[in-house]
Design a protein that fits this description.
It is a multi-pass membrane protein. The chain is mainly α. The chain is built from eight helices and no strands. It has one domain (2-202). The N and C termini lie far apart (37 Å).
């Protein structure tokens, strides 16, 4: 039971860190500042459903996506690590996580994706499932992903209250702390991917 809990906490922490709801709050507030609380709740619910569908899809068929593009695990680790490191640096530099805002339906684009379920989240899910494609591991990623996604959108649901209570500066500080965690995970991914390449080509 303790092993299951450790795996769940590890996966949940990684996914919650890369979704980084605290970093997304300023953008979310900016996009919905002219809306009422009821309208914001509706946007979050729709975005949550869209984000959940995207996350579940990549969790269940991630293995086949990698096979279709002939991507190796070491390659995914190095490439995914670079993506995560770039995202972490963007967060630390307070650069926008979306370059353009669709004035139409903002629930799906850009809130659900790429603001929350972006390249970093998708890469992390693909890496976790492809490293161990057993039903048990995929199930753990599935459960951890759902919980992390639910927690993320629950935070967005009360984002206006959080900003009023914690102040914008505190919210940004929390977002930067999460970015440091992402950077650490990214470096570990790149280092282990390079090590796997080394073993594959020089230690046969």
């Amino acid at each position: 039971m303790s092993d299951l809990l450790i795996i769940f906490i590890s996966y949940f922490t990684q996914l919650l860190a890369i979704m980084n709801p605290f970093s997304a709050i300023p953008t979310f507030i900016s996009l919905t500042e002219s809306m009422s609380h009821k309208e914001r709740v509706g946007i979050v619910r729709k975005a949550y459903l869209a984000g959940l569908i995207i996350l579940i899809a990549f969790t269940l068929v991630g293995k086949y996506i990698l096979e279709a593009f002939d991507v190796s695990i070491p390659g995914l680790r190095v490439g995914g690590g670079i993506i995560l490191l770039t995202i972490a640096l963007d967060m630390l530099g307070e650069m926008p996580r979306t370059k353009q805002v669709n004035p139409g339906d903002i629930a799906v684009v850009p809130i659900a994706t790429p603001l929350i379920i972006g390249p970093g989240t998708i890469t992390t899910v693909l890496l976790l499932t492809s490293s161990d494609p057993s039903p048990f591991n995929i199930g753990m990623v599935f459960i951890s992903g759902i919980v992390a996604c639910t927690a993320t959108f629950a935070i967005l649901m009360v984002s206006d209250k959080l900003v009023a209570y914690l102040k914008v500066s505190t919210v940004r500080a929390i977002g930067r702390f999460m970015a440091i965690i992402i950077a650490g995970v990214a470096v570990e991914m790149i280092a282990y991917g390079v090590y796997q390449y080394y073993r594959q080509f020089f230690m046969q």
